[in-house]
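FORM 7B - TANDEM STRUCTURE REPORT

SECTION 1: FIRST PROTEIN
SEQUENCE AND TOKENS:
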Amino acid sequence: MQITRTNPLTMRFAAAWFLGLAVAAQAQVEAPANAASANPVLKGAQVTEAALVDALAIAPPEGAASGATRGFRPASKPGGAPVKAGPGRASLLITFATNSTELAADTQGQIDTLARALQSDTLAGFSFRVEGHADARGEAAGNQRLSQLRAEAVMAYLTGKHGILPERLTAVGKGSSEPLNAARVDAPENRRVTIVTVRN
């Protein structure tokens, strides 16, 4: 019986190659779950003032605690405990009728809750980007325009009904460029409004 010796360098190369494949496969399995958990879509009873404050609160700029940033209030809860920095964005499942920019009654309730969160002491020192999203049905140009108008409708409601200062908000239409559910074109979570915290 003849024994063939394998080059140790070849063995190391093969082991590294298989390890690379395993890491890549694991990353593909974990990526969708991590993406969803990093920016969950809040809907129904999940849309609370506390949940929105937690999602939109971000770490204060350096020097803010010492008063170096004009108009900034350090993030803290009513008892004085610091607020843990969140992702700085919150997606709300605010839905519209087809080709409509009118806010439904249940949608208005969610935006009322959002307004209370934006007026809280924790978020008082920040500005926000209101991003409208559309699903990929229809033409790209039409989806872009529709998403912009929907973002503007939410912004108009916040400023008109709740007195949020217009300079704290910017409406941005994202069209269908950032679907949360790429596997299902007409998924309701693709027609959403995302609020993103912006440092002043």
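SECTION 2: SECOND PROTEIN
SEQUENCE AND TOKENS:
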Amino acid sequence: MNALDTALHLAASGIPPLPLRAGKVPFGNCSACAHNACGGRPNMKTPGPCTCPRPCHAWAAATTDPTILNSRQWAPAWRAAAAVAYHPGGAGLTIVDCDNADAIAWARATLPATRIVETPRGEHWIYQGVMRSVNGVRPGLDIKSLMAYARWLGPGIGAMAVLPDAVRALAVKEPAPARRAPQTLSAPLRGAQGECRHRTPAYLERGIAMAEQRITEARSAVHAAVYGTFLAVLSTHGGCGCLTDAHVARLFTAAQAKGETARHCTDAWINALTALGM
């Protein structure tokens, strides 16, 4: 089975795939984004401010739409692909990526049994549920879910378990020692309105809490409510670097509690970023 056939098979199963070059690096799947022209990270693992109708590389390229996968735009990438990857968060999954024997031993002693996929260096422990992606949560152990991708190495063996609290807890950092907030900034931080207004955590926290409430209270047109809320959050809080993966995960969780799929959440977030030119 070639790379495109594998991708179409995954897409039909609800798993959004994407092509990888040698070295597990994504393609820029259009001329505007080729060779990192759109400003993403040099290895293309994180999208830049792509102006295409839909972001076309890194985890944002993953899709279950066969029309896109079979499109002329993607054809050169599939022909040259060294491997196929997928977006776990878009499939409603979280991967605990164990890169060595010590990490595997820790997982076996600590985590509930679940589906396991063997990798060249270790194992992927796959759980049902999504969370933010974090690298290096323990030596040799990464978490891949929302806004990340993983190489497709087969379906694995074993029954898939629900994402346990023990995995979610790995992404929670110990709080830093409390310190007095500065009363003034040495230089203004650029934001959506030209200056960062997050001089204390309260402003951003209140904005995220209001966004969660808006999604939770939506009684109809949930898709539109989620997109509108994401757009509002990004326009107010997305321009100065204060918005973190933890904040995004809270919004995705609220949306999924209203019946949105992880894929719908990801698409809405990407569309909002694109609409705002971020």
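SECTION 3: OBSERVATIONS ON SECOND PROTEIN
The chain is about 35% helix and 15% strand.
The first strand starts at residue 17 and ends at 21.

SECTION 4: SIGNATURE
Preparer initials: ____
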